[in-house]
Design brief:
The structure holds two protein chains of two kinds. By secondary structure, chain A is of the alpha/beta class. Chain A has one domain: Glutaconate Coenzyme A-transferase (3-Layer(aba) Sandwich). Chain A has a ten-stranded mixed beta sheet, with helices on both faces. In chain A, strands 6-7 form a two-stranded antiparallel sheet. Chain A has a two-stranded antiparallel sheet with strand order 8-9. In chain A, strand 13, helix 6 and strand 14 form a beta-alpha-beta unit. The mean pLDDT of chain A is 96. By secondary structure, chain B is α/β, with parallel strands linked by helices. In chain B, helix 3 crosses helix 4 and helix 10 packs across helix 11. Chain B is globular, with a radius of gyration of 20 Å. Classes of the chains: A alpha/beta, B alpha/beta.
Chain lengths: 257, 311
């Protein structure tokens, strides 16, 4: 099992977060294949929304991004970016997925700068819809490879709210969504302690020990006595991902036949 | 009878002066007004401010040409490629000043301007450095927290942004400037309402009767448009839904060139300054290149003819 693709483990874990009947806000990359895997298996009636303004599409080929015309095919509505984002503020979106350059123990994200804001060492692309999804989707999931440079004690810039500085902070800021529920890494799945709102290890992928995860994280994870091995992907899920949804390896990049 | 809005590309470009603020339509590699901006880049206009959401190629090219001074924006990156290098390095070396927003934050600033309101209330951006860390704007001039007088809930209020000029590339229009665009429409409706002057370039000019046949397809009514330019392939090397896909090789050529200021300059010399007109630009690519990017009317994207039977 050690030879299994990390991208497949992450995509399958992400797809399991989507429940049937929900509305999911989806971006480019693993969330897109995870959403189509969920739709093809346990969540056939999930509605997908993309920030480019595409609502509930039925593409016949995998899109290279949310702006790709392949993603417009079969949609029930095309609109603009305002329309898609307004669904978040209205509370119509159950779940969103985000990537990040940096993440802290409270699930706050940085996709803006490394270094000083006004004279950065590295200028990153900026929030885009990430802040809006994290603020206003009912819940959200972060997908990020475990790395001490990414999982940091202190962010260079807080672009996107997790639990901000701890319990009660989201409510005080008036953020309507409940915040992050999972952080899916290539080593395992992290969640948040319900009292401290800090990150903890909940599930490990095959061949990975709890110490391996802590070693790849730049802050102390909360203790959690009920951490367990993640459910391995089924052969049906692997088949769907690698033959139907992403046969050319656009997002599932490390799959060996 | 209402006046025709049709002007030449040069006349439209002459609306832009040093120090103006600009916003442009488009998202990812779709319907950004690249033909207009190639012409603008030949004029040497400088010290521009971009007020942008997703017009990454416009921001990057203005930065590459040294024309950009400030950016109010939410996200500029190249889908499938990566960072907008000239734009990002401009911020890193201090030649471009940045003021960050979420997408919704930028859209709400346009919305406030377009509705003639002093602010819009919203529920994102709160609690983050987007509100707390100063760019070139005083944080309290940008957004403030506010308790709703009706239900006591905390909201953030965001102030308006009025661009001097909005530049839009769309599918079709009549001479009066009634504009149709198919597929996703990015932030065009909000940008057009917020801007003082609206310039639209289109693939096709059609009769007003043709517009009246399907009024639901009209994204912008003519009363909102100041200048209209007939500019076939005006989004190229990007795409426009229902007409053509972006040209990956042309985008990759720029992206490779953008790795250094020197190679960027060579690219600008070849594809912007070395070309006299929009027609010359299209000729430089050639009919085969342009026609091979046409989209299938049913699929909405390019139908891939199997290799063994392709020309």
């Amino acid at each position: 099992m050690t030879g299994i693709s990390r991208d497949i483990l992450m995509a399958v874990a992400a797809s399991r977060e989507i429940r049937d009947g929900e509305t999911a806000f989806i971006g480019t990359g693993l969330p897109m294949v995870a959403a189509y895997l969920a739709k093809a298996t346990h969540a056939p009636t999930v509605s997908l929304v993309f920030e480019s303004g595409i609502i509930d599409p039925a593409p016949i080929e995998l899109a290279s991004g949310v702006g790709d015309y392949k993603l417009v095919y079969g949609s029930t509505k095309v609109a603009g970016t305002f329309y898609a984002l307004s669904l978040l503020q209205q509370g119509k979106v159950d779940i969103g997925f985000l990537g990040t350059a940096e993440i802290d123990a409270f699930g706050n994200l940085n996709s803006t700068v490394i270094g000083d804001y006004r004279k950065p060492k590295v200028r990153l692309p900026g929030s885009g819809g990430a802040n809006d999804i994290a603020s206003m989707a009912k819940r959200f999931v972060i997908i990020a490879r475990a790395d001490r440079k990414r999982f940091v004690e202190k962010l260079n810039y807080l672009t996107t709210p997790g639990f901000l500085d701890g319990p009660g902070a989201r409510e005080a800021a008036g953020l309507p969504g409940a915040g992050p529920v999972k952080v899916i890494t290539d080593l395992g799945i992290l969640g948040f302690d319900p009292h401290t709102k800090r990150m903890r290890l909940e599930e490990t992928f095959p061949g990975i020990k709890a110490e391996d995860v802590q070693d790849a994280i730049g802050f102390r994870l909360e203790a959690y006595s009920r951490a367990k091995p993640a459910i391995p992907p089924t052969s049906v899920q692997i088949e769907l991902l690698t033959r139907k949804i992403d046969p050319t390896g656009m997002y599932i990049k490390d799959f060996q036949v | 009878m209402a006046r025709s809005k049709l002007v030449s590309l040069d006349e439209a470009v002459a609306s832009v002066h040093d120090g103006m603020s600009i916003t442009a339509g488009g998202f990812a590699h779709s319907h950004q007004p690249m033909g207009f901006f190639r012409a603008l880049m030949r004029t040497g206009v400088k010290d521009l401010t971009i007020m942008g959401v997703a017009e990454c190629w416009v921001a990057e090219w203005l930065a590459a040409a040294g024309m950009l001074r400030r950016a109010y924006f939410s996200n500029f990156m190249f889908e499938g490629f990566g960072r907008c290098r000239r734009f990002s390095e401009g911020i890193e070396n201090g030649t471009i000043e940045a003021e960050d927003h979420s997408h919704f934050g930028m859209v709400m600033r346009f919305m406030a301007a377009g509705l003639g309101l002093p602010f819009m209330p919203m529920r994102s951006q709160a609690g983050t450095d987007i509100m707390n860390v100063r760019g070139f704007e005083n944080p309290s001039d940008k957004a403030q927290m506010f308790r709703s007088p009706f239900d006591g809930e905390m909201l953030s209020l965001i102030s308006p942004l009025n661009p001097d000029i909005a530049v839009i590339h769309a599918a079709r229009a009549d001479e009066l400037g009634n504009v149709e665009l198919y597929g996703t429409t990015s932030v065009i409706e909000e940008q057009v309402r917020a801007a003082a002057t609206v310039i639209v370039t289109v693939e096709e000019i059609v009769s007003t009767d043709e517009i009246r046949r399907n009024p639901q397809a009209t994204l912008i009514p003519g009363m909102m448009v100041d200048k209209l330019v007939h500019l076939p392939y005006g989004a190229f090397p990007l795409g426009i839904y229902g007409y053509y896909e972006y040209d990956n090789a042309a985008l990759a050529e720029y992206y490779e060139a953008s790795r250094s200021p020197k190679t960027t300059r060579l690219w600008l010399d070849k594809w912007v300054h070395g070309i006299k007109s929009h027609w010359d630009y299209l000729d430089a690519h050639g009919a085969s290149r342009l026609l091979s990017r046409r989209t299938d009317p049913h699929l909405g994207y390019k139908y891939d003819i199997p290799e063994e039977v392709a020309i």
